[in-house]
Amino acid sequence: MSRDLPARITKSAVPRGMRVAVLIWLIFAGVFIYALFCAGCALASGDLFSAGLNGALAAVLAWSTAGFLINVPLCFYLTRKFSSGHFTEIAAAYKRTLRIWERLPIAKDLNFGVAVATLAFIQHARGRFDDAEMQYRRAIKIMSKNKRAAYPHYAVITNNYAGLLVREHRFEEAEELLATALGIWEKQKGHEWNGSAIPLCTMASMYLESGDLEQAENYLLNARRRFEAQRDPQMILPDSMWQCRTVCYLGLTLVYCRKRQWSDAFKFMELALDLVYHRPIAFGTLSLYTTGKIVQELLSAGKVEQAERMLELAYSIGSKYPDHPDAISLLDHYENLLRLTGRVAEISDMRRWIRPVTPMLRSISGSL
């Protein structure tokens, strides 16, 4: 039985919006440096008026655009590191920068809020849920002062925070945030409107947790139609959109597993696995929780082969983040499978995260 390795993608795509932001950053930085240079030359020649004028220009430019000048390099760093899954390194860089930023006599504006929101998401992905919630609340407080200017960041952060609340069964709080996120996205025009698929998926996860399979199915199918549109929102990282698609397919897999509609369940499972085969970044730590639920349903129905395929994929991710809460619970599911299949001797290596696995992402003839 052949096992296909994931295709290798070495570079994360940089969205057009990020390229434009970098270009603007270079222009502002160039003007600032030029103003300082002119001020220095004027001071050296004894022209105090010109030195003061250029110095004032540099000071005003630095104060008014400082947040932007700090945030753009951070965002560019994120786009380069996100696909490699270096979350610990990203979190450390953001924490250092935010500590320095807080001490500077500059406005804690939208750019500061975006940086805090990004740290919140990274902590969420790392499984540091308490710190993630604290940072989410902090970012929302900053951004809520001007929600319109904060688009699409405010829609993204309210959705991400809602996802954290859903897993804690704080449904009323989550629903309020999701209504806000969905309302923002659905007011957008063109391909930006397709971003509404993201809160639809999170809303579906809430109904999955509460046991309303019909509502969950409706929201996920609606999200799928929007995900399959030709263009994604330009302000959302492409890697994030691929992960959201995987979340959608896995959600539908879980819905149909619970409904015992196996042909539909396996159809969406294959779509998820095929997506991960072509884009490994599409499966991350945020998919571990749903994957564990799917494995439980498959094992309870005796679908051992499909359960093992999902477990091997999840294990390959969990082994990179062994202290993540969902990775730890994954080990219990894997032990259950190994016991069911008479492979008790393999449990020790599996629990030490040294079990060799090669995720089988391509469909096997006759396996469904």
Short description:
The protein is mainly α.
Describe what you observe in this structure.
The chain has 368 residues and is mainly alpha-helical. It has helices spanning 16-44, 48-81, 87-103, 110-126, 129-143, 153-167, 171-186, 197-210, 213-227, 238-258, 262-278, 288-300, 304-318, 325-340, 347-351. Helix 4 (110-126) packs antiparallel against helix 5 and helix 4 (110-126) packs parallel to helix 6. The longest helix is centred in the first third of the chain and has 34 residues, at 48-81. It starts with 15 loop residues before the first helix and ends in a 17-residue tail after the last helix. Mean pLDDT is 83; it is low at 1-14 and 364-368.
Shape: elongated
* Structural class assignment: mainly alpha
The total beta strand count reads 0
Order of helices and strands: HHHHHHHHHHHHHHH
> Which bin fits the share of residues in helices?
over 70%
| Main sheet properties | none
